[in-house]
Design goal:
Aldehyde Dehydrogenase, Chain A, domain 2; Aldehyde Dehydrogenase, Chain A, domain 1; 7-stranded mixed beta sheet; oxidoreductase; 13 helices; Ald_DH_C; about 35% helix; Succinate semialdehyde dehydrogenase; Ald_DH_N; succinate-semialdehyde dehydrogenase (NAD+) activity
Length: about 475
């Protein structure tokens, strides 16, 4: 069995040591495309996490004072280490997660790009000089790393979600205790190895796998962890926000989405289909910015549906490790069951399955990419995140009504619209209650821009110049008696 050129770490990193769980128990990691066991990872819990936090606290004392140029240099080396190992890292990611290999290569590259971005951005982490009310004093602000950071990440982007958290934390001079998702731990653990290889001191990066409650609980309880950054479901995010209250931690939350994708009569329909395929079927529909609801204006509706159906039928499904495959398996059987539930609910309320609609002949957690038309606001996917390869198409008549429907959700992460009317584009940006709005594109994520949601999609930004803010405290410095 491949160990991906030595990158598959089957132990946890605590204080610079690769260790098993105290209990000696381990968890199997499987390839969702084949069902094969790839290996195991430690089933760690609270005690191991407390040791990791102690190591991170000790390391913070010195790492937080590392000269800027050294921190920048380490990040540059980390970027290069990722790109030097891009192919092996991508293959390992696809093996544990299922996404097509070209997407996995892209994920490693964007993770490396975040590292590079924050290596650049930390050099501009300026404070300010504030005009004082009297001549006897000078006022300024200075910026400081927040302290030990707890980072909890999901399985859908097991490498780049950690990149967005580790890179700004390390740039700022924070130390980290991270917990990757149990189903995709290797893409998380390898960050520990690469950080060690490029010379991060022991204890700066600690990574644990195992019990979400045990590890998460210890992170949340510890007064030494000053910030928690989480990407995952809104339900778990709410629990973490509640738990953060006892020690008043800073929190950043990238939670669920329910992205609307609006196609107006004046849209370039082929461009809209291209955007729709990316915004819906990337990672088999398992991203928090994936389109959950297509709203298509009546005049263009039938053309859009015909072309969407054709594009979806042409998707090549299979083991993501094979070049050319565009759709791999879903992460597990629970994800498949959930998609089936959305389809049953929609068809029972009058929706029509016009493409796909059932488990794929490949078996396992493969599901046919699906299109449903006749979608209505009383169907489950109008409110809940699908997280699977199901495109639900609603028909609408006018702009004001569709903005209202698009906003009729507790979520507010990404929204997309296709229109050639520039005035409408600005009206949409102002009317849509979302943290990110994309016009005439289905892919908006880039390291230069702040990624993040409003409403129950979360708080805080990742990427952009704002992506550092959550890892730094602003201190007010007043020098008087002058
Ligand atoms: P997803 O379904 O996208 O993985 P989850 O919110 O279930 O979303 O999980 C995201 C991450 O949060 C995973 O690493 C998971 O193990 C972790 N997690 C789940 N429940 C808890 C919890 N109660 N406390 C801390 N972490 C948790």
């Amino acid at each position: 069995m491949s160990n991906f050129n030595g990158l598959m770490m089957e132990a946890n990193l605590i204080g610079g040591q690769w260790v098993g769980a105290d209990s000696g128990t381990a968890i199997d990691v499987t390839n969702p495309a084949t069902g094969d066991v790839l290996g195991t990872v430690p089933n760690a819990g609270g005690d191991e996490t407390q040791r990791a936090i102690a190591a991170a606290s000790a390391a913070f004392k010195t790492f937080s004072r590392t000269p800027l140029s050294e921190r920048v240099g380490l990040l540059q080396k980390l970027h290069d280490a990722l790109m030097d190992n891009q192919e092996d890292l991508a293959q390992m990611l696809t093996a544990e997660q299922g996404k097509p290999i070209f997407e996995a290569r892209g994920e490693i590259a964007i993770g490396a790009a975040y590292v590079k971005w924050f290596a650049e951005e930390i050099r501009r982490a300026k404070g300010e000089i504030i005009p004082a009310p009297g001549n006897d004093r000078r006022l300024m602000t200075t910026r400081h790393p927040v302290g030990v950071v707890g980072a909890i990440t999901p399985w859908n982007f097991p490498s780049s979600m950690l990149a967005r958290k580790l890179a700004p934390a390390l740039a700022a001079g924070c130390t980290v205790v991270a917990k990757p998702a149990t189903s995709t731990p290797y893409s998380g653990l390898v960050w520990g190895k690469l950080c060690q290889d490029v010379g991060y001191p022991d204890g700066v990066v600690n990574i644990l796998t195992g019990s979400a409650r045990g590890i998460g609980g210890a992170i949340m309880e510890s007064p030494d962890v000053r910030k928690v950054t989480f990407t995952g479901s809104t339900e778990v995010g709410k629990t973490l926000i509640r738990q953060s209250a006892d020690t008043v931690k800073k929190v950043s939350m990238e939670l669920g989405g329910n992205a609307p994708f609006l196609v107006f009569d004046d849209a370039d329909v082929d461009a809209a289909i291209e955007g729709a395929m990316i915004a819906k079927f990337r990672n088999m529909g398992q991203t928090c910015v994936c389109t959950n609801r297509f709203y298509v204006q009546a005049g263009i509706h039938d053309t859009f549906v015909a072309k969407l159906k054709e594009a979806v039928a042409a998707l090549k499904l299979g083991n993501g490790a094979e070049d050319g495959v565009q759709q791999g398996p879903l992460i597990d059987d629970g994800a498949v069951a959930k998609v089936e539930e959305f389809i049953d609910d929609a068809t029972s309320k009058g929706g029509d399955v016009v493409q796909g609609g059932k488990r794929h002949a490949n078996g396992g957690s493969f599901f046919e990419p699906t299109v449903i038309t006749g979608a209505t606001q009383d169907m489950m996917f109008a409110k809940e995140e699908i997280f699977g390869p199901l495109a639900a198409v609603f028909k609408f008549e006018d702009e004001d009504a569709v903005i209202e429907m698009a906003n009729d959700t507790d979520f507010g992460l990404a929204a997309y619209a296709y229109t050639r009317d520039i005035a409408r584009a600005f009206r949409l940006n102002e009317g849509l209650e979302y943290g990110m709005v994309g016009i005439n594109t289905g892919l908006i994520t880039t390291v230069e821009a702040p990624f993040g949601g409003v409403k129950e999609s979360g708080m805080g930004k990742e990427g952009g110049s704002q992506g550092l803010d959550d890892y730094m405290e602003t201190k007010y410095f007043c020098v008087a008696g002058l």
